[in-house]
Structures are given as structure tokens and as C-alpha cells.
Amino acid sequence: MEAFADLLDRLVLTPSRNAKLKLLSDYFRDTPDPDRGYALAALTGSLSVPGVKPAMLRTLVTERIDEVLFGYSYDYVGDLAETIALIWPGKPGANRTPPLGEVVEALLSASRTEGPRLVERLLDSLDAPGRWALIKLVTGGLRIGVSARLTKQALADLAGKEVGEIEEVWHGLAPP
Questions:
Q1: Cys-Cys crosslink for 138: which of 8, 11, 52, 62, Cβ 3.0 to 4.6 Å?
Q2: The model's pTM
Q3: Region of residue 145 (phi > 0: left; psi between -120 and 50: alpha; otherwise: beta)
């Protein structure tokens, strides 16, 4: 999860298309499966985590901090993921940081009743950048300046193929 969070953080701060392509290619080359596949699905909008909704995230955070403080913070920051990531009170001695594949598989297999406690445990186990990446991942709204086409271009560059070859088989694939 740390590598994925670092990738998202670097992509959002990188204005250059070519630099983004290099970041993506490097990540896909250096990251093992299934993390690579889940990251690819998230970046292209092909990953859906139906058990986690923004309202559930708001409920979780207001169980930990004052609702008025959260409201003021959200108004100031303007982004739900960033607000929760920054304001979430960490718990000392939280578990290890899980890999992306483990996080996604747990979220996809969790029921609606298990989902909130799972997300809470994950938020406790992550630092602020990891929490931000987790929330972006589960809500599906990455908004980091990377399109599905750019992601596919990075894959094509890495494999030495044309992007059209990647897109020909894309519809037949499922995450991871």
C-alpha cells in the first residue's frame, strides 16, 4: 500500500506527461502481482469497491472526532479523502501496513456490515499518505491527472508495444 500511496502522491504533484509515464512505467515494472494489477485497475477506473461509500467514511470519522471540527476541516480542505487522511487520529501500535492486493481483496470480500470496521482498521494501520490513497481507492475518484489512456500508454511503453495492442485485449481482462 505504501508504494501505491507514493505513486499517487507523486502523480498528483507531477505536471509533465512524460514524467507521469515514467512514474507509471517504473511502478508497473517494480511492483509484483497482484498489487500491480489492482493499481492498474484503480488507475484506469476498472476497480469498484461497492461496500464503501463516502457517507460511511464520514460516519467513521465523526465517530473518532467532533463532527463540527470535521465539518470545518472539510470546508477548509475541500477534499473528503485529504480531510479524513489528515484529521484521522492514529492509534499507536497499529498493525503493519498491508500490501495493496491484500487491502483490495479484503475490501471486495467484506460484507456491508464488515466494511466499516475493516476500513477503520485499515485507516488505523496507515499513515496520512496511505489513508489518502486508501480513500481515493475505495471511492473511485482518484483525480490525480492520469487518464486510462495514459496508463495504458505507460504499459505499452514498458512492454515495447503499441497502445492499440493493449487496448485490443483490454476489454477481456478483469482485475487484477
A1: 52
A2: 0.90
A3: left
